[in-house]
Amino acid sequence: MKLWGGRFTKEENQLVHNFNESLSFDQRFYRQDIKGSMAHVTMLAKQGIVTEEDKEAILEGLEGILKDLDEGTLVFTREHEDIHSFVEAVLTQRIGEAGKRLHTGRSRNDQVALDMKLYCRDEIDQIQGLVKGLLEEILKIMEENLDTYMPGFTHLQKAQPVTLAHHMGAYFEMFWRDYQRLGDTRKRLNYCPLGSGALAGTTYPLDREYTADLLGFSGPTLNSMDSVSDRDYVIELLGALSTIAMHLSRFAEEVIIWNSNEYRFVELDDAYSTGSSIMPQKKNPDIAELVRAKTGRVYGALVSILTVMKGIPLAYDKDIQEDKELTFDAIDTVKGSLSLFTGMISTMTFNKQVMEESAKKGFTNATDAADYLVNHGVPFRDAHGIVGQLVLYCIERSMALDDLSLEEFQAVSPVFDNDIYEAISMKTCVERRTTVGAPGQEAMRKVILACRERIKEM
Predict the structure, then answer these.
(1) Which end of the chain is more exposed for a tag (fewer CB within 10 A), N or C?
(2) Three-state SS annotation for 344-381
(3) Is residue 442 part of a domain?
(4) Domain range holding 413?
(5) Is residue 130 included in any domain, yes or no?
(6) Hey, which residues are catalytic here?
(7) Number of structural domains, the chain?
């Protein structure tokens, strides 16, 4: 029987039931639903709204349902509309009349708002753990590659030399912000909507502060209409997940490029690669490609919920039911992507010599050659032109600046001397950059120490 069936004289059309029901997906948060019901009945008994005897019967019944669902001995059945009606029906079947008293002082509107908040809160904790794991792997790569020289890029063109530690440090900062963003979302959502009723509270003397405390919330929500219709926290969470997915996609794009035959910066572990059914030489970066592609699914969830919420009048409307499948899919996608991506980067190897040679042949030390001239009294604009001539000369002969003889340097500018080779070595180009945030070892060691401290505080 429907929880709302008393006012109706006809059975619900089966197609309407199928279109309207949510048990097929909201069964996912049965633990949160039962946890919320336990807190609610505990509060009801404290307030004298239900008897201690009924409370104990309800709690025992709910614990049994939770155990049976966890163990798979109780299965969800199609006749129930949602997780709330399923739990209440099974509870009443098992303990009798006392089960019907559980819903006193609440509505499915505040109940589902509670379940969704509890679910999102639990998932945020798990996702933060996955982000932390990724940060630890990135930091490990940073610590091991302080002197692994490689080209830094702008416009996907080789620009200036950096280290792999420095390059990876950029991703550490991105995912560190993601971790904080998730925490900010959790903090804002952590107010309990239970007790708001359908939209206007209730005449029962509920202790909403007590319920909030039992469930680990910072306190109760302060407007019952907003409590049942608010999904800002879902939008914020999907925004945070979209940003994580975007960062993973950027990282994946670089891994894909670095794995190509033209770059050969990395070698992916066989466990995170696939082959071709027709071309035996292929080793494809499929995991990185799928991570890159799945970003679109997460974006889609964010845009969808924004579209759902944009025209909804106060208070609750059935439209809001659309929040669940979108959020569940985005959470699953990001969790899967984080896990696989962390495994992939933890097992891939870096071709350090290839990376350094790429930096040299990409003329990433050209700026330092110009700085050399400036330090010897040549105006920067003239120095820029001189080094540009040298680069053109090298391109025509498939050489690097480091390969030029002193005579070839001096043919363009007599200011060059033997110390030019030391000035434009990859090591010098990097190590002279010691300001905060730069790739030099002195600066990077301080950053790595700070990163390690951040992880300890998580």
Answers:
(1) N
(2) HHHHCEECHHHHHHHHHHCCCCHHHHHHHHHHCCCCHH
(3) no
(4) 366-424
(5) yes
(6) 155, 276
(7) 3
